[in-house]
Design goal:
The protein is of the alpha+beta class. The chain has three domains: 68 residues, Uridine Diphospho-n-acetylenolpyruvylglucosamine Reductase, domain 2, CATH 3.30.43; 141 residues, Uridine Diphospho-n-acetylenolpyruvylglucosamine Reductase, domain 3, CATH 3.30.465.10; 107 residues, UDP-N-acetylenolpyruvoylglucosamine reductase, C-terminal domain (Uridine Diphospho-n-acetylenolpyruvylglucosamine Reductase, domain 1), CATH 3.90.78. It is built from eight helices and 20 strands. The strands form six sheets. It has a five-stranded antiparallel β-sheet. A four-stranded mixed β-sheet has the order 1-2-5-3, covered by helices on one side. A four-stranded antiparallel β-sheet has the order 13-19-18-17, covered by helices on one side. α4 crosses α5. It is globular, with a radius of gyration of 21 Å. The structure holds uridine-diphosphate-2(N-acetylglucosaminyl) butyric acid. Uridine-diphosphate-2(N-acetylglucosaminyl) butyric acid (EPU) binds next to β13 and α7.
Length: 357
């Protein structure tokens, strides 16, 4: 277990916010987690798990012990007639893992190309893009329970995946308190994901339903694209719409796309006929939060050192410099102003997607 003191977290969060960790532990194995738990001082302190730092807003220095997940390793565990199953260490880069599976001839993750962050973080918020979510390719995961010192394995049902949601985002329910997790027990701050197993179904079926991808396919004039072609298109679409965190700090979509009832949607359409909306299988209607924010005139706006990306209003960006970066407080002030104006105009409450620390 490698323990470091007073560590800058600026290189470790994609917003590029300047904040420090009092104590940072580099976790490279399950044994490191056992050592942490056995430590008379560190073992008693609350922890904050940091993967790629691409979905966090740091509002100050972190007093909790920061666990920087660096467990590596990727391997094929099974090549069956109906699927390839791979196992990946939590600290591996998600995008590099997607590229690696394609290079090995195991398609299925191409729609999820270029999503920043680590493999261990992917189940936490059930990452998704262009018609595929992690849960569609998920087999199981291994974790370590800091409360009991035991390792465990969870299947998809036990992870309670939802839209950008899982059991790992919710605090453990307190005895007697109203359940804080939607289903089952919350595991935030307690369960550390160490390995993830992904199931890539055979035969491979391309997922091309998303409008942006259909457009790419039509432009290319290709009837039956390969997984590599879809991977390339997804990378092109993302590069055109989303800022590269290496050049402009951000945490991807800042708000979840809200869902409303069909009645609520009709009511809004009566006032805003152009509103972008998608019917969901459960009968509800999903609205494009980016459109709502855009319609309120926020695209390209800057408040302090926090800004709204000029090509996609759903993304908040760091308009400061590395020496004078945006603060988490500035980002949250802008986020609240956006929430207020969307609420006043549409009566819809936007919910932030990143974890605010
Ligand atoms: N739109 C606007 N103005 C904007 C932004 C979007 O009018 O400023 C409209 C677009 O024209 C489009 C619709 O809103 O009609 C949806 O936009 P887009 O296709 O870019 O997708 P999104 O709903 O904004 C979601 C995910 C992304 C994911 C894409 C593709 C959420 C919160 N975001 O974005 O995920 O990459 O779909 O599947 O679900 C992330 O979670 O960090 C993320 C980037």
């Amino acid at each position: 277990m490698v323990v470091e003191k007073n560590v800058s977290l600026q290189p470790y969060n994609s917003f590029g916010i300047a904040a420090r960790a009092q104590t940072l532990v580099r976790v490279r194995s399950v044994q490191d987690l056992q050592a942490l738990r056995a430590d008379p001082v560190l073992g008693r302190r609350p922890v904050f798990v940091l993967g790629g730092g691409s979905n966090v807003v740091l509002t100050g220095d972190v007093e909790r012990v920061v666990l920087k997940m660096e467990i590596r390793g990727r391997r094929l565990v099974q090549e069956g007639a109906r699927a390839w199953t791979i196992e990946v260490g939590a600290g591996e880069s998600w995008h590099e893992t997607v590229a690696w599976t394609l290079a090995q001839g195991w398609p299925g993750l191409e729609n999820l190309a270029l999503i920043p962050g680590t493999v261990g973080a992917a189940p936490v918020q059930n990452i998704g893009a262009y018609g595929v979510e992690l849960q569609d390719r998920f087999e199981s995961l291994d974790g370590f329970d800091l409360a009991t010192g035991e390792t465990f394995t969870l299947d998809a049902a036990q992870c309670a995946f939802g839209y950008r949601d899982s059991v790992f985002k919710h605090a453990p329910a307190l005895p007697g308190a109203p359940g804080s997790a939607p289903r089952g027990m919350g595991l935030a701050g307690r369960a550390i994901i160490t390995h993830v197993r992904l199931r890539l179904p055979r035969p491979w079926v391309p997922q091309l339903g998303y409008l942006d991808l259909e457009r790419k396919r039509a432009e290319a004039g290709v009837a039956h694209p390969s997984a590599q072609q879809i991977f390339d298109w997804v990378c092109e679409i993302r590069r055109a719409k989303l800022p590269d965190p290496d050049t402009l700090g951000n945490a991807g979509s800042f708000f979840k796309n809200p869902t409303v009832t069909p009645e609520q949607c009709q009511d809004i359409i009566a006032r805003e006929p152009r509103i972008v909306h998608y019917p969901m299988p459960d009968g509800s209607v999903k609205l494009a939060a980016g459109w709502l924010i855009d319609a309120c005139g926020w695209k390209g706006k800057t408040v302090g050192r926090a800004g709204v990306y000029d090509k996609q209003a759903l993304v908040l960006v760091n308009r400061g410099t590395p020496e004078d970066s945006v603060t988490g407080g500035e980002v949250m002030t802008l986020a609240k102003a956006i929430q207020t104006s969307v609420y006043e105009r549409f009566g819809i409450r936007l919910e932030p997607e990143p974890v605010v620390v």
